[in-house]
Specification:
Its EC number is 3.6.5.4. With 441 residues, the protein is α/β, with parallel strands linked by helices. The protein has helices at 2-13, 21-37, 42-56, 67-82, 110-125, 141-152, 165-178, 196-209, 224-236, 254-263, 284-291, 295-307, 310-322, 327-339, 342-347, 354-362, 367-378, 382-386, 393-403, 407-429, 432-439, and strands at 98-103, 129-133, 155-156, 183-187, 213-219, 241-245, 267-271, 279-281. The chain is built from 21 helices and eight strands. It binds guanosine-5'-diphosphate and magnesium ion (MG). The site of guanosine-5'-diphosphate has 17 residues, from α5.
Length: 441
């Protein structure tokens, strides 16, 4: 995957003293391969590499981070920029009804996405939404939208057989105005390929409806084709945003990276499944983190930063730096976990903890387990907390008795400590919590 490949690149940069031009160029060659493999369009990848290279060469390496981390930060910043910088909302602040026109090829997910957005506007923003299908090409297309409307409890324009798209649009506008709808969603027809009749139809509807938003719906799985489709539409229809569908499963994400560059418009949503609630706002920062394979670490650090006092973080950072992580630290961590909403929430976010979380869940672990674990640490002597390797069978029995648990529980805790130490070492590789926080600004 893109994140695996990039991870390998940065791994190689680790431990070097300064960010030399040769290092950067070598790394960028691999980043380029990684981008192309992920279906990023060639000109977009080239442009990206040029910008990162320029910023990376001669960049001062901050004391607390390694050159590799510095490059990760630069790549991550540029990825975020490339993905549109900030999250872009729908802009519907016009005299109602605000028209949202959905365009794209047949099968890209227009009709489904129309219903998904309508549902979202209704549920999250309490908007009164009407949907109308202008797809007279495909038999039963209008019926498909009507059924979806029933499913999400959103009004649809009554179907009149034989009416043409532009006339349906006029009728929809009138109905939405008269009946006081806030938003009118127009689901248009697609074609198998981009062609002139399709573009002309979109232009004609656009002139009638004067949409506040014209969203291009593209299938992320089609990779380079998605990019070509986007560039054709951009030339002929004034788009305001993009929706990338089928971002569930194993979409390689390259299409997302190319979209902004090709259309000059933000990705506003991603479709993540066939279900009607499988729609997410597109967050460039998060996606760039995910591409770099550090998204979860980023969330973890952000969440930790909210709760852990700066002083505490400093102390823990020092321990990480020395590669120490004793039972007292574990206890601190357990207490923090309690504060942060329990084990499951936290373990899911920690690097290398996914497997443990599954194990814990399989063993019927819950948050009462957290209290038991803290009790176990409390029953250890200061020496034992410093050096858990002292814990022989006899000591374990004593601790189990003292904490009202079993030797098995004590063993589980020791195992967890060991796995956590390993995970912590991973964080240490990235410069420790402090380094990571610095890196994240
Ligand atoms: P249209 O021809 O552009 O209107 O496309 P449709 O909305 O009819 O969707 C075509 C197919 O793609 C349907 O089977 C949808 O359920 C499916 N689909 C749409 N969006 C997504 C998505 O985000 N993920 C997945 N897995 N399927 C989707
Ligand atoms: Mg359709």
């Amino acid at each position: 995957s893109l994140s695996d490949r990039l991870g390998g690149v940065f791994e190689k940069l680790r431990g070097r003293g300064a960010l030399g031009e040769a290092d950067v160029r070598t790394a960028m060659r691999e980043v380029r391969v990684a981008l192309l493999e992920a279906d990023v369009a060639l000109p977009v990848a080239k442009d990206f590499i040029a910008r990162v290279t320029e910023r990376a060469i001669g960049a001062e390496v901050t004391k607390s981070v390694t050159p590799g981390q510095q490059v990760v930060k630069i790549v991550s910043d540029e990825l975020t920029t490339m993905l549109g910088g900030e999250q872009a909302d729908l802009e519907l602040a016009v005299t109602p009804p605000a028209v949202i026109m959905m365009v794209g090829l047949q099968g890209s997910g227009k009709t489904t996405t129309t219903a998904k957005i309508a549902r979202r506007l209704k549920e999250k923003e309490r908007k009164k939404v009407m949907m109308a299908s202008l797809d007279v090409n495909r038999p039963a297309a209008q019926e498909q939208l009507r059924v979806l409307g029933e499913q999400v409890d959103v009004a649809t324009l009554p179907i009149i057989e034989g009416q043409q798209p532009v006339d349906i649009a006029k009728r929809a506008l009138q109905a939405a105005k008269l009946q006081g709808f806030d938003v009118l969603m127009l689901d248009t027809a697609g074609r198998l390929h981009v062609d002139q009749p399709l573009m002309s139809e979109m232009q004609a509807i656009g002139e009638i409806a004067a949409p506040a938003e014209t969203l291009l719906v593209v299938d992320a799985l089609t990779g380079q084709d998605a990019v070509n489709v986007a560039s054709s539409f951009t030339e002929q229809v004034p788009l305001t945003g993009v929706v990338l569908t089928r971002m569930d499963g194993d979409a390689r994400g390259g299409a997302a990276l190319s979209m902004r560059a090709v259309t000059g418009r933000p990705i506003k949503f991603i479709g993540t499944g066939e279900k009607i609630d499988a729609l997410e706002a597109f967050d460039p920062e998060r996606v760039s983190g995910r591409i770099l394979g550090m998204g979860d670490v980023v969330s973890l650090v952000e969440k930790a930063a909210e709760v852990v006092e700066a002083e505490e973080a400093e102390k823990i950072a020092k321990k990480f730096a020395k590669g120490q992580f004793d039972m007292n630290d574990l206890k601190q961590q357990l207490l923090q976990m309690q504060k942060m909403g329990g084990m499951g929430a936290l373990m899911g976010m920690m690097p290398g903890m996914g497997k443990m979380k599954a194990q814990a869940e399989a063993a019927g672990a819950d948050d009462s387990m957290l209290s038991r674990m803290i009790a176990i640490v409390n029953s250890m002597t200061p020496k034992e907390r410093d050096k858990p390797q002292l814990l022989n069978a006899k000591r374990k029995i004593r601790i189990a008795n003292g904490s009202g648990t079993t030797v098995q529980d004590v063993n589980k805790l020791l195992k967890m400590h060991k796995e956590m130490s390993t995970a912590m070492k991973k964080i240490k590789k990235m410069g420790g919590i402090k380094g990571m926080m610095k890196m994240l600004g």
